[in-house]
Specification:
This protein is mainly alpha-helical. It folds into three domains: 138 residues, no CATH class; 110 residues; 34 residues, no CATH class. The protein contains nine helices and two strands, in the order αααααααααββ. Strands 1-2 form a two-stranded antiparallel sheet. Helix 1 packs antiparallel against helix 4, helix 5 packs antiparallel against helix 6 and helix 8 packs antiparallel against helix 9. It is flat. 20% of the residues are buried.
């Protein structure tokens, strides 16, 4: 059974490579220079590596595919080992000490699986980001900044060279995610206790109404935290987009802004009786030194 799964994993990776080669064979038939940033982003999302083909940087393709493929393969192997270890444990045949050993094993496999999957996702994000940045040809693109922030919060701020904002964005996302997870765990804990009452972990020391109140409270806090997290994520995208639009604005010390009085006596300064009436005002003048 395990060998069949291993062959299935190899077939999946081979299929991805075949799709890329097939897409590359048609790439030369398309006017690649006419593609917009949004089209490059869409192509890179649908098929990783296609952005590098569009940018004619073919040497990068093996690197991204080797990274994604290897991380995905090892992640699938760790996932198989995780489920295999869970299935091997039977509480009828193993005691408390054996249970701890099995829990340690499947916990390690689960952590390895998550790490490998995360690295595969990072290779994917890196391939899309590389395609967008190279495709902009040195021009600072608001679309690129927006897409990068959508793919990974804080990445658009790096692209905009506002590195001081990255800890703020990442710290905010991490803190809000922790709050969501904390309330979700509390919701599950008191929800299970409410279902098992009075044979719950509190052995009936908490009333059923109290358990219900705590469960609903954690659920409300979780839902509210999710809304705040979504708003913060959207704010990260908006911030990257706005900074990208103002990236090329000249805000150096060479700009001068001064106020000066104005006396205007042109044709529009005559009143209804056709008598001259000068206009006194204030002029705002901006100049570059």
């Amino acid at each position: 059974m395990a060998s069949n799964k291993g062959k299935g994993h190899q077939f999946l990776i081979a299929l991805l490579l075949f799709l890329f080669v097939a897409s590359g064979s048609y790439a030369n038939r398309i006017k690649l220079d006419s593609l917009s940033t949004r089209q490059v982003w869409l192509a890179s999302q649908l098929l990783p590596g296609s952005g590098q083909v569009i940018n004619k940087q073919y040497w990068k393709v093996p690197f991204f595919y080797a990274g994604m493929g290897s991380m995905l393969y090892f992640g699938l192997q760790a996932n198989d080992n995780y489920h295999k270890t869970r299935n091997l444990y039977d509480p009828l045949f193993y005691g408390a000490e054996e249970k701890l050993i099995f829990e340690e094993k499947w916990t390690n496999y689960r952590m390895q699986r998550n790490i490998f999957y995360t690295n595969a996702a990072l290779f994917y994000v890196a391939s899309v980001a590389d395609a967008l940045i190279v495709n902009s040809r040195g021009d600072h693109s608001p679309t690129t900044a927006t897409v990068l922030s959508m793919l990974m919060p804080g990445l658009g701020q790096v692209y905009n060279q506002k590195l001081w904002k990255v800890p703020v964005v990442m710290g905010g996302i991490a803190s809000l995610w922790y709050i969501v997870d904390f309330n979700q765990r509390g919701y599950k804990k008191f929800g299970n206790a409410y279902k098992k009452f009075p044979n719950d972990e509190y052995n009936g020391t908490r009333s059923k109404n109290e358990l219900l109140f705590l469960r609903d409270g954690y659920r409300r806090n979780r839902d509210f935290s999710i809304m705040i997290l979504a708003g913060f994520y959207a704010l990260n995208i908006i911030d990257a987009n706005v900074d990208a639009h103002f990236f090329d604005w000249d805000i150096s010390d060479n700009l001068a802004l001064k106020f000066e009085p104005m006396l205007d006596g042109n044709a529009f300064s005559f009143n209804s009786n056709l008598t001259f009436q000068p206009v006194v005002g204030l002029r705002l003048q901006c100049s570059i030194k």
